[in-house]
Write a structure and sequence with these properties.
The protein has a domain of about 45 residues. Helix content is about 65%, strand content about 0%. Helix 1 packs antiparallel against helix 2. One of its GO terms (cellular component) is endoplasmic reticulum membrane.
Length: about 80
């Protein structure tokens, strides 16, 4: 019964690329959310649309932040 070394599911050399792409996508969702809030009247806004766009923005930004920390060598 031999042990194998742990290998992460994502190669460490891709962390910086993932950080850039995921953060960019998160900022795109964030900018869409801000533009939606500014351009729509209060009566025309949809709570489900706001929550879904906010959820995607937070998921992509948090994933991008996590991969930024991993690319810089900050492990928590």
């Amino acid at each position: 019964m031999g042990y194998q070394a742990y290998s992460p599911p994502i190669d460490t050399k891709h962390y910086s690329n993932l950080a850039i792409v995921l953060t960019f996508i998160g900022f795109c969702f964030l900018s869409y959310f801000v533009i939606y809030q500014i351009t729509q009247n209060k009566q025309q806004r949809s709570l489900t649309k706001e929550l879904s766009v906010g959820l995607f923005a937070s998921l992509f930004l948090s994933s991008g932040t996590m991969f930024s920390f991993l690319a810089l060598g900050l492990y928590f």
